[in-house]
Amino acid sequence: MKNMKSMVLILDDEFNIREDLNKYLTNEGYNVCVTKSIEEANEVIQDRKIDFAIIDLKIDYKSDLGGVEVIGNINKLQPKTKVIVLSAYEKSVEIDKQLEKVSLNGFISKGGQNNYIKETINELKRLEGIQSPQKCFVIMPFSTTKSCKKQEW
Known about the structure:
The protein is α/β, with parallel strands linked by helices. The protein is 38% helix and 16% strand. It has helices at 15-27, 38-47, 66-77, 93-99, 116-131, and strands at 7-11, 31-35, 52-55, 82-87, 106-109. It has a five-stranded parallel sheet with strand order 2-1-3-4-5, with helices on both faces. α2 (38-47) runs parallel beside α3 (66-77). The longest helix has 16 residues, at 116-131. The protein is globular. The two termini are 27 Å apart.
């Protein structure tokens, strides 16, 4: 069976962020589709199967939090797609209130001490782990080997 590469949709209005994510995610083995506007992203969502989406919240000066609209479309049209918000803004009460309207799997801030590209790659790898079946085993009492937790069964 051929190993299929996961498709990642990137929506960000900043050229350098789109290009950097495209470069590094491609090097990690992902197929990447890069968009810079809400309209472009919505076309891709309607036309292609997407495994992961990395969505900026504030797309341009015209939108307040237009990324939430795109996430809503992903949730409706491709509900199995794992969504990560990548935002220059830290989480706040206002942002949390908007994000309650949609389903997402992660939130990464572009600012701060951490490298957002590395965090994004790590988050994608973590989410891929969710998609694959987990192998769990139970250890006999008195064993020093780590056993599964109940939520991992």
